[in-house]
Structures are given as structure tokens and as C-alpha cells.
Amino acid sequence: MRKLSAGKKTDVRLNDNTEQAAGSVLKRLVDYLRPQLGLIISSVIMSAAITVFQLYIPVLIGQAVDEIVGPGAVGFDAIGSIALRMAVFIAAAAICQWLVNLINNAISVGTARRMRLEVFAHIEKLPISYLDSHPHGDLLSRAVVDIEQISDGLLMGFTQLFTGVLTIFITLVIMFSIDPVIAAVVVVLTPLSFLIARFVAKNSRAMFSKQSVSRGQLTAYSDEMLENIKLVNAFGYGAEAEKKFNTINDELKEYSLKATFFSSLVNPSTRLINAMIYACVAIFGALSAVGGAMSVGTLVTFLSYTTQYSKPFNEITSVIAEFQNALASAKRVFELLDEKIITEDALIDDLGGDCKSIKMENIDFSYVPGKKIIKDFDLSLPAGCKAAIVGPTGCGKTTLINLLMRFYDPDSGRILLDDTDISIVTRTGVRSQFAMVLQDTWLKTDTVRNNIAYGKPDASIEEIISAAKEAAADSFIRRLPQGYDTLIEEGGNLSAGEKQLLCIARVMLSRPPMVILDEATSSIDSMTEMRITRDFDKIMKGRTSIVVAHRLSTIKGADIIIAMKDGQIVESGTHEELLKKGGFYSGIYNSQFRRA
């Protein structure tokens, strides 16, 4: 299992550059919105229309009130006309609101879709070293959960922010046109809402950042435990795993509660200020109405505008709290997108040919600086050679495969295929020369047929069946419920040996120039292994192949056996030659096949 220190509490601190960092993240979010500029303009226009329609309704209400309480008889005809106009404006506002919701959903969902595509494509280009050293659950959290948080924040922003800002601006203009003194009272009290919003933003940003980090850690730890649940149960680690999970979960709870606390201050605080503003307007307006400076209907209109003016502050401060969450999530997504990807500066994309000679000259390599795994390594394999690599665990066998496939590049030295340095060949070009079967098998959620044809999608069913027979997989495949059309979900309904047989069948079908088998038959019984080995020998005749094996019975027929220890070759030769030497290889072989 990958070792994860997620149970350790992470202290995410704000520094002097927090505001600047938030501004940078916001700028990058805006850049993501540029392709949808047309939809954004449409949303702004619709929002303006909604604001105009809604703000004209208080005028009509005031007119209706004056028709009722004014001198003389009640003007029922005028009231009916006013009611009809109100119905038209209300219906128009409702239709525009529906269209705005559709447009804003398209903007937020479209932006999230673009970000997901970009993140997925970026992950595919990240170095294997990065993926090996970062919890996959955390990457998953950034690609799915964090982008969803961004989408929610953008949706709330577009839904409420534009309309709110326009409403505040237009109502202020109208209120100053009606009574500048009362409007000035409203403006004087308004900054209190901004002060609260700033306080909430400052404190909630820190909590939402910590919440995002903890959420990623929780996802990573859950993924790790579920991925290795058999080992967890086998070693009785369940209680300890639950304890660690609870630690991370409690940390997430703490940050979530604090984030919720600060963001929940918004609504009651702004409501209090809005009530104060409304009370002041009502008092000053009533005095003006009593003094004859305005009619009762105008007072009703002014009070309606005061409510319309105050309402967006509740919405905007809620948007600010949600947007802090979105910014915290966006920061994590952009951190992933800023990770350095593999850049191809190679000159060659296709090596061509059916088989290759392999040379490794003066190779040094280390996963961790200062701790060499491969030291001053030299190897030469002629084209068409069947080579076997043996040695104790940790001697560098799998590392050699990683270097050959350009999953990693050597710290020094060079690797040549047919005298071509692979450093000038694209990674895709290098990997197209090899097919691999690993001890850790991987099958995608698809049919058996499509899993075998993974390296040759256009293969016919006859070719697939033939490859399965060569891999000794045909018999168990036919016993599956739908045979070759049986759906397998990441290999979960197959044994380890059956998974390996399907992976071997995949190689049998693709017929690559070179083959790498890294403990490819470790989960297969000896009789089946012998049969597969014979079929491999036939298929790979005249082709270059490399076999990494602990079970030495499978490599007796290799053209050359390379014995490794501590990242270096200690012996090489045929099986018989190495046994005659009575050295390192002989000791390994005798330990497997002779009793002490």
C-alpha cells in the first residue's frame, strides 16, 4: 500500500500574498470564461431586462395605491389597467429569468467540462514520477470534486451577481430621483454590508482552503484503503484504518464547520442592516408623506425600492462566501495544471522495422536524488535475442524496464534501439516498439473481446480467439456467461491468473517488434505457464524479447540470462554456462530446485 500521511493535520496558513494569489486565480478563471463571451453578454442583457421589469413594478404599485387612497372615488378602471401592466411585466421577468437560468447553467457546466478535459489531458502528460509520488485519490478529488465546486460557484455568481449589481445601481438612481435626502440615508448605511462582506471573505477564504485540502486527503485515503481492502482485512488493519480515517474526517469537519460559521454570518448580519435601512426610510418617508412632500403611493414605491435595494446585498454576500469556496477549489486545480508536463523535443516518431537491437551505455539512475538504483550499467542485446533478467528484489530489474519504455529517463548515459538514441525518439514512438505484460495486470471495464483487442482495435473475432488460444485463455473465456462478450469490470470478476492470461492474449494479438514480460506468469500454474512459454517462443522467434522472472524454470531457453545485483550486472550467459560457473546465478537456481 502507498504510504500516506493524510492523517496528519495540515496547517494551511494565509500569508501576505494571499490576496494577490486569489486575484491570480480569479484572473485565470476569467480566462476560462472568454470562449463563452457570447453567452455571458446574453446573460447580462437578460439580467438587465429582468431588473428593469422588476423595478418598474413598484412604480405601478405606488400608482395603484394613489388611485385607492387619493382624493375622490377609487379609480377601478385605472387600477385594472395597472394590474394588467403588472401581469405583463411579471410574466416577462419570469420568462427572462428562465432564459437566464438556462444560459448561466450552460456557462458554468461548459466551463467545468472544459476544465475537466484539460485536467484529464494534463494528467496523461504528467511524468510517471509525479503520479507515483502523489495519492491518486487526491488527483481524483481535484479533477472531479474541486471542479464541481468551481461550477457551483460560477453558477451562483452568474445567477445572482449580475442581477444584484444592476438592481442596486438602478434602484439608487430611482431613489435619488424621488427623494435625494432619504436616498442619502440609505447610501450612508450601505457600507456596513460591505464591511461584513469583507470580514466574511477574509476569514472564510482560509477555512475553505483548508477544507479543500482536507477533502482531497480524505478522498486519497479512502481510495488507498478501498484499493487495498483485502490487505487491510488480511492484516487486521481495519481498526487502525478507521482511526486514521476519523482523524482526517474530524479535521475536515472542523474546517467545514468554521467555513460554514463565517459564511453563515452573512445572512443575519445583512438582514439586520437591511432592517435598519428599511426602518430609517420608513420613518423619514412617513414624515415626508405627513408633511405633504410625497404621496402615500410614492412612499410605498420608495419602501419597495428600499427592499429591492437591500435584497441583492444578501445574495451578493452569499455569492462571496460560495465564491471563496470556488476560488479555493480553483487554486488546487490550477496547481495541478501548473505541474510540469513531459515535453517532446524528439526528432523521430517512428523507428520502423520488426525487431531491434538494444544497447544501454553507462546508465546511472535514481528515483530519489543521491540514492542510485542503477550504477554505471552497460548492456547489449542483438536483434531477435531472447534475454532474461534475474536477481533479488530491489536489484533494478523493473527499473530497467521503466527506462527502456521511457517511463523514466536515465540521469546519465544513453539507451539505443538499432543504434538510435531513444532520447531523440518520442515516447509514443519508443513505446510503439514494445508490448508489455506486467505482474500487476490491468483490464478496463469492457468486454473480454475488447480487452484482448486493446492494442489492435481493428482485430477480427477470429484473430482474437486465436490469440486467446495461444495464451491458454480460450477455455475459461468460453465458460464465462457471454463468452467473449462478457463484461468485466476492471477484472473484478476474474482470478489473478485469468487476468494475466487475458493480458498475455493481448500481446499475442498485437505481435509487437519487441516484448517485455515482467513477472507476466507469476499468477499462472506451472503447466499453463510451460504451454504459454512455448507459444511465446514461436511467436517471438526472430523478435527481441526481455523476460523478468523469479521462477527460473521459464527462462532456461533464453539466449542470454543477465543476473543483476545492486543495480549492476554480476553475470551473463546461457543457462548452462552460468550453472557451470557455479556463481551468483547458480546459487539462485539451486536454491529453487535443490534441497539443502
Question: How are the elements arranged and paired?
Answer:
Blueprint lengths: L17 H16 L3 H33 L6 H50 L2 H6 L2 H43 L1 H10 L1 H37 L1 H6 L3 H27 L1 H25 L5 H42 L20 E8 L8 E8 L4 E5 L6 H8 L7 E6 L2 E2 L5 H5 L2 E5 L7 E2 H5 L8 H10 L3 H5 L8 E2 L7 H15 L3 E5 L7 H14 L4 E5 L11 E6 L2 E6 L1 H7 L2 H10 L3
Parallel strand pairs: 3-10, 3-11, 6-9, 9-10
Antiparallel strand pairs: 1-2, 1-4, 4-5, 7-8, 11-12
Report on the structure:
By secondary structure, this protein is of the alpha/beta class. It has 3 domains: about 20-335, ABC transporter type 1, transmembrane domain (ABC transporter transmembrane region fold), CATH 1.20.1560; about 365-435 and about 515-595, Rossmann fold, CATH 3.40.50.300; about 440-510, P-loop containing nucleotide triphosphate hydrolases (Rossmann fold, 3-Layer(aba) Sandwich), CATH 3.40.50.300. Helices cover about 65% and strands about 10% of the residues. The strands form 3 sheets. It has a 6-stranded mixed sheet with strand order 6-9-10-3-11-12, with helices on both faces. A hairpin with a 2-residue loop joins strand 4 and strand 5 (about 420). The longest helix is centred in the N-terminal third of the chain and has 50 residues, at about 75-125.
